[in-house]
Design brief:
This protein has helices at 11-16, 19-27, 42-48, 64-81, 91-100, 127-141, 153-161, 207-220, 242-251, 264-268, 284-291, 322-330, 336-353, 356-367; strands spanning 3-7, 31-36, 51-54, 85-89, 108-113, 145-150, 170-172, 194-200, 225-231, 255-258, 272-275, 295-299, 314-317. By secondary structure, it is of the alpha/beta class. The protein has two domains: 3-177 and 355-367, 3-Layer(aba) Sandwich (Rossmann fold), CATH 3.40.50; 194-353, Rossmann fold (3-Layer(aba) Sandwich). A seven-stranded parallel sheet has the order 3-2-1-4-5-6-7, sandwiched between helices. A six-stranded parallel sheet has the order 10-9-8-11-12-13, sandwiched between helices. Helix 4 packs across helix 5 (91-100). It is globular, with a radius of gyration of 21 Å. The two termini are 14 Å apart.
Length: 370
């Protein structure tokens, strides 16, 4: 019986982002082993019959000793488990998982690039040095991969331009997909328009622009509601501090809600979903909102622009432009049918393009796991 070893950058993503993919492997008779830092998904995985390893992985920074330790840990797991297939996603698992597999030639390696991360966005002083290091590591690591999955064409072009990957190794898929049965269509709420953003407290998610745009719209339409589900991360150059979040909360323009396992009630209580991100792979939260029938406002940026057909299921705005974002929000004021019509189109697009089972079938076909 073939065995698949999946490695993630954080434990919870194995359940919430790759749960359907893991189940597809199990349902087809394959054994599955998983590894990630933390234990959030461990109980869920064990109940499915998936063996789990809690690995020493820091999501931010480049520490040679820590990263060498991670490579040795993954090398040890591969030696013990002897998987035929290795599936990696997020930056460090892709790089260090691929390097660890160099010691095990019988293991077929596949990676999923879920986005290029903050080091490929603009405005960071240390970006050139970090980019050079990460590009070099990617270039070395991905030589060991049979195929590399990408969630948008801009990321493929970036990797080709930087000579990271051979063109014949790149495979384009429609994001991570979304479970259309779990994220069911929900009727729009009655009353004033409610805008919602769900994101980690990182500047490149466009949170500052969302706050600024909310203030502009609220001044003209005080009855409008703005909500944000957010959560803090470990340190990093783009992390928004807890003090800043507290100040926003005190201002009262945007209601900030703590991280929740189930975002569906909040999406159902919203009229329009907003994500002013600077760059994404394909934003999972946008797909969830589309599946539940919500109009989308997002940026004309890699990964984001693919989710919106302009004026059909939403609006695209320039990156880092709170004024344009506010103007897009105002287009829904006094026009309740617009959110309804666009929301229906979002659900249709989700069914046609982003059904998780369609996405997973393509991944499995490429890997060779029917």
């Amino acid at each position: 019986m073939a065995k698949v070893f999946i490695v993630a950058g954080f434990s919870a993503s194995l359940k919430y982002f790759r749960g359907d993919l893991i189940k597809s492997w199990l349902n087809n008779g394959y054994k599955v082993v998983a590894a990630a830092p933390g234990r959030e998904a461990e109980e869920w995985l064990l109940k499915l019959g998936v063996k789990y390893y809690n690995i020493p992985l820091s999501r931010t920074g480049l520490n040679p000793l820590e990263d060498t330790n991670l490579i040795m840990k993954l090398k040890h797991i591969i030696k013990i488990e002897k998987p035929e297939y290795l599936f990696l996603y997020t930056i460090k698992p892709v790089i260090y998982g691929s390097l660890s597999a160099c010691f095990h030639k019988k293991c077929r390696v596949f990676s999923l690039i879920t986005g290029l991360g903050y080091i490929f966005t603009e405005g960071l002083r240390q970006k050139p040095l970090l980019q050079r290091i990460v590009v070099l590591l990617y270039r070395i690591a991905l030589r060991r991969n049979y195929k590399v999955f990408f969630q948008n064409p801009d990321d493929i072009e970036a990797f080709k331009k930087l000579n990271i990957i051979a063109p014949d190794k790149a495979v384009l898929i429609n994001g991570s997909g979304v479970n259309l049965d779990y994220y069911r269509h929900a009727d729009l709420p009655a009353g004033p328009i409610t805008f919602l953003l769900i994101a980690r407290f990182l500047r490149e998610k466009g949170i500052c622009e969302y706050i600024e745009a909310a203030g502009l719209v609220k001044a003209k339409y005080p009855e409008t509601n703005f909500k944000m589900i957010g959560w803090q991360l470990e340190g990093g150059p783009s992390v928004i501090t807890a003090d800043q979040v507290a100040r926003w909360n005190e201002d009262g323009v945007v209601e900030i809600i703590a991280k929740t396992e189930d975002v569906r009630p909040y999406i159902a209580a919203s009229s329009v979903y907003v994500l002013p991100s600077y760059r994404e792979g394909t934003p999972r939260t946008v797909l969830e909102a589309m599946a539940m029938g919500r109009a989308i406002i997002t940026t004309d940026a890699p990964g984001c622009r693919e989710t919106v057909i302009e004026t059909v299921n939403g609006f695209l705005v320039p990156v880092k432009n709170s004024t344009a974002l506010a103007e897009a929000m105002e287009r829904f004021m006094g026009n309740p049918e617009l959110a309804t019509r666009m929301g229906a189109e979002s659900r249709r697009i989700a069914e046609e393009k982003y059904d998780v089972h369609k996405v997973n079938r393509k991944i499995n076909k490429i890997i060779g796991l029917p």
